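Lecture notes, continued. The same structure-token format from the folding unit now serves as the input rather than the output. Read the line below as a description of shape only.
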């Protein structure tokens, strides 16, 4: 079983440290900064074998050059981000796309292309471990802004993640959940489970605790961006007869203004 540790960095980013105890394989997902990662690895007495990147934004890749230099780790990144990430070595690092697999000790990552936030965004699904690392595509109670993609692309990407097994733990790239909950309640005010979850989130953040991982099942029940077919949300938006992409686009536009 791959061990997963959340490491908060910068103002609201999460880095995920990965470790396969059976083989000693060590990895990190989306290291926006190198120093906290190196410090934690030193505390744990570990090296670093793999750096997994979901997309090219600097708050997810800023630590790559130093980590590669200090540890010799290889980088696994999206083929669509070729030429967009500093510190990549075309001879040793691995560009990946939809359907590719990456061995990690005794585990296997399945690569899912999830564009929308950026055009080259990917997610890494550990199928046998019930975990997915989805960067800035799906958030707890939210989704990423559409910086480079279209609503159609993002809806397809979210639908792909929503189709993973319900127990799948969702590791996203930021601690945005409390603000996402406020928006979710604004567009889905009559959802009692969402109201309970918002209270739990406030309590967690009040204690300084993370709100992730979440699960696919919990997001399907409470995240408005995965629930565009819910009649109550459609009525609230006045879009009872609209198609899924139109409802999603309206939700995303409202969140951008919220």
């Amino acid at each position: 079983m791959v061990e997963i540790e959340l490491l908060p960095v910068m103002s609201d980013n999460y880095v995920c440290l990965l470790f396969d105890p059976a083989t000693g394989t060590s990895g990190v997902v989306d290291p926006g900064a190198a120093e906290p990662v190196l410090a934690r690895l030193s505390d744990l007495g570990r090296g670093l074998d793999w750096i997994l990147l979901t997309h090219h934004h600097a708050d997810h890749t800023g630590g790559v050059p130093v980590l590669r230099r200090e540890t010799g780790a290889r980088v696994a990144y999206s083929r669509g981000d070729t030429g967009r990430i500093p510190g990549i070595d075309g001879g040793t690092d691995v560009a990946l796309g939809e359907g590719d697999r990456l061995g990690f000790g005794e585990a296997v990552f399945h690569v899912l292309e999830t564009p929308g936030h950026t055009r080259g965004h990917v997610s890494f699904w550990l199928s046998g471990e019930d975990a997915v690392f989805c960067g800035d595509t799906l958030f707890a109670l939210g989704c990423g802004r559409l910086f480079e993609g279209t609503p159609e692309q993002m809806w397809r990407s979210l639908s792909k993640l929503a189709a993973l097994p319900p127990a799948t733990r969702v590791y996203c790239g930021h601690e945005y959940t409390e603000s996402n909950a406020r928006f979710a309640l604004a567009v889905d005010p009559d959802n009692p489970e969402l109201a309970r979850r918002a209270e739990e989130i406030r309590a967690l953040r009040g204690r300084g605790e993370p709100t992730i991982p979440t699960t696919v099942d919990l997001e399907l029940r409470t995240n408005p961006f995965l629930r565009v077919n819910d009649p109550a949300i459609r009525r609230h938006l006045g879009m009872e007869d609209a198609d899924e992409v139109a409802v999603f686009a309206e939700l995303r536009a409202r969140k951008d203004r919220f």
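Point for the exam: The chain has a mean pLDDT of 96.
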